[in-house]
Amino acid sequence: MKQGDLVVRKSYGGDVIFRISTIDEHRQAAVLKGTDYRLLADAPIPDLSVVRDPEVTGAAKQVRVKVNASMKRMQEQRQQQVQQNENELRRASNQSQPYFELPGKVLHLDGDGNYMKKSMQLYTQMRVPAYGLHVHESQMTEIVYRLLPQLKPDIIVITGHDGVLKNRVNKDLYSLSSYKNSQNFVNAVNVAREYEKNRDSLIVIAGACQSHYEALLQTGSNFASSPGRVLIHALDPVYVAIKASYTSIRETISLTDVISGTISGIDGVGGIETLGKYRVGLPKPKILSSVKATL
To answer: 270 is in which domain, residue-wise?
Structure first.
């Protein structure tokens, strides 16, 4: 067993697939990162079992089915949106007009480098303008303070690793000290709200696995995890951001649509009514190189 191996924990029935991040030979323990869920954990090496083919394990199959369903739903919604835009413009002008789209711009901060790459791939696939940065959770407050005025995004995602601390004597789920990184996320959200207080002007999506949902909402998040203190999928915050990016500024983001579209569902993600960030323009700008200047 070595760093980078895929493993499951025997004591948990192999419910989640992890990748070994580091191994402490002295303690005979390993630090684990979930491959699909935003979970950071540690476990005794004897409790671990190496996974040779993750695609044939029950846990991986279930996750893959949910991910594929979520992706299909996003693509279908985009196709419906494009068709609806074309129909509306045709009715208004009695002819088909080439229009252009301005989806909301995303700033995505992630405490996990692998999840950051997966997230950016999905943004690219869905044609969402996004800037992503892998940054440790403890540094997010400073990065939010520095980048928001520079990039001026419509949507900011603040996520990474979190969880309820298992070694606390008194596990008070309403105390931020009971969580690995919820305090860091709350601090970053607070800075974002100092920059822009209007929740419709800047949409904030914050949290990770088992995060303090109530504290994140009270601090100013539009959407947050995790109401049921459950594990959330790595791409759940991305799905919410894409939904916000492609919901019209004339409409509120459908809470039922966005929550049911995530892999973890209503126990994993919640939020408040928020206006979307998607705009349509007409007519489509011409290529400037083909325009001749006149005196």
So the answer is: 83-281
